[in-house]
């Protein structure tokens, strides 16, 4: 009976929560992958886009009132959301509203995460939420937001920050916090040069996931005060959260895997190396991120495509894929694909070999090609006999090569223009 009451309690909270997803960033560390798209619109996992994971978390958590704040090169992101996330029912109070930077209150565009929310404060007020959940739209993870909102209410918190342990050497890229035994935040630093480790594990630090829960009225007051502060950079991590730690009830909420009682899966795929690694992790026998989880599906827009096809079975010309994920519309024609992830409509022609690579949609790989440890962006046409990833010094003259030796190829590097501007 108690569990039923708890579920009803949480469902009432999520029903009265408005989620605001920050999806306006370029993600410059992804280099040319974000030349023509915002980071949340970057394809991931064979058939999804990064934004699908946070949107799916909202829907699966019972949060059906969502605002998506966009700014940088948002066309493909907006088109994807309009096509794949148009099943919300307005008559039931469900919606995904697109909130582009539009100078509603000031003459500037969004200049920080807090400013982005403030510039839409009239829209937020009109929805009359009891709680506001602020989310980053560029991370890969699964999370039920309901228990976090419930913990926020139970503690009578002013702000609750979702957190996760990350290796100390990577913590300088995040907001890092220290907490007491009750998870009350005692210290918060945005991107510190010398992150403070957690007491029980000196190799790890407690990092903010960019997830915040506020009571709506408290948030309005904060945003107005921050907007009036000429010395503020109008950012949650840099300005608002550090000020709240000393003067208000600021709590951390550790995100854990309920089944394994361990740190939950969460990836900031913000660099070329991290993006490549996170995609190839999905190929494993039992990956940390289970895309086959029927209890927590990842929703997306997908074209109606035929099944993947593998043709030719000669000794020197066999169409095959091993330890790989191959999406619909792909044709492996007398070629070999090993430990790779192929998005939709990828064609690999005869005598070619693709290894340890991530191939985004609508790529054509010619004959006698060798592709290794490479990310090939959407729409590329790889000419016959081209070798990529075999000689990094040669690759650096034409493509981008990451610190870990992953090669990134986009159409412009091949002299192919998908986006005509002249």
Care to give the gist of this entry?
Helices cover 23% and strands 29% of the residues. The chain is of the alpha/beta class and 422 residues long. The strands form 9 sheets. Strands 1, 4, 5, 6, 8, 11, 12 and 13 form an 8-stranded mixed β-sheet that branches. A 6-stranded mixed β-sheet has the order 21-24-27-30-34-33.
Can you tag this structure with a few keywords?
Spore Coat Polysaccharide Biosynthesis Protein SpsA, Chain A, alpha/beta, 2 domains, globular, 34 strands, six-stranded mixed sheet, eight-stranded mixed sheet, 422 residues
Folded structure, characterized:
- The structure is a single chain.
- With 422 residues, the protein is of the alpha/beta class.
- It folds into two domains: 2-281, Spore Coat Polysaccharide Biosynthesis Protein SpsA, Chain A (Alpha-Beta Complex); 309-414, UDP N-Acetylglucosamine Acyltransferase, domain 1, CATH 2.160.10.
- It is 23% helix and 29% strand.
- The strands form nine sheets. Strands 1, 4, 5, 6, 8, 11, 12 and 13 form an eight-stranded mixed beta sheet that branches.
- Helix 1 packs across helix 6 (146-154).
- The relative contact order is 0.12.
């Amino acid at each position: 009976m108690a569990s039923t009451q708890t579920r009803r309690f949480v469902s009432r909270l999520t029903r009265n929560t408005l989620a605001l997803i920050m999806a306006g960033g370029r993600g410059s560390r992804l280099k040319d992958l974000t030349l023509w798209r915002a980071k949340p619109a970057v394809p991931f996992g064979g058939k999804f886009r990064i934004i699908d994971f946070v949107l799916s978390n909202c829907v699966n958590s019972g949060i059906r009132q969502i605002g998506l704040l966009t700014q940088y090169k948002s066309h493909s992101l907006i088109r994807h959301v309009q096509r794949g996330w148009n099943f919300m029912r307005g008559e039931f109070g469900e919606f995904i509203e697109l909130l582009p930077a539009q100078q509603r209150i000031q003459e500037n565009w969004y200049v920080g995460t807090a400013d982005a929310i403030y510039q839409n404060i009239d829209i937020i007020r009109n929805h009359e939420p009891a709680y506001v959940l602020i989310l980053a739209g560029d991370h890969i993870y699964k999370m039920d937001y309901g228990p976090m909102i419930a913990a926020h209410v139970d503690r009578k918190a002013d702000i609750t920050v979702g957190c996760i342990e990350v290796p100390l050497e990577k913590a300088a890229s995040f907001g890092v916090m220290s907490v007491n035994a009750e998870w009350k935040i005692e210290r918060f630093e945005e991107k510190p040069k010398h992150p403070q480790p957690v007491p029980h594990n000196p190799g790890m630090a407690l990092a903010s996931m960019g997830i915040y829960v506020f009571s709506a009225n408290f948030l309005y007051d904060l945003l107005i005060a921050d907007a009036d502060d000429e010395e503020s950079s109008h950012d949650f991590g840099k300005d608002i959260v550090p000020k709240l730690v000393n003067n208000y009830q600021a709590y951390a909420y550790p995100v854990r895997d309920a089944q394994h009682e361990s740190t939950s899966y969460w990836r900031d795929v913000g660099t070329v190396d991290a993006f490549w690694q996170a995609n190839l992790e999905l190929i494993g026998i039992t990956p940390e991120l289970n895309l086959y989880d029927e209890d927590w599906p990842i929703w997306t827009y997908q074209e109606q495509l035929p099944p993947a096809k593998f043709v030719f079975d000669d000794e020197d010309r066999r169409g095959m894929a091993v330890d790989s994920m191959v999406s619909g519309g792909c044709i492996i024609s007398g070629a070999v694909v090993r430990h790779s992830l192929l998005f939709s409509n990828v064609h690999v022609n005869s005598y070619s070999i693709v290894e340890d690579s991530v191939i985004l949609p609508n790529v054509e790989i010619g004959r006698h090609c060798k592709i290794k440890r490479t990310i090939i962006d959407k729409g590329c046409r790889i000419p016959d006999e081209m070798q990529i990833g075999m000689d990094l010094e040669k690759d650096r003259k034409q493509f981008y090569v990451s610190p870990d030796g992953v090669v990134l190829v986009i159409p412009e590097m091949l002299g192919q223009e998908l986006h005509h501007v002249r």
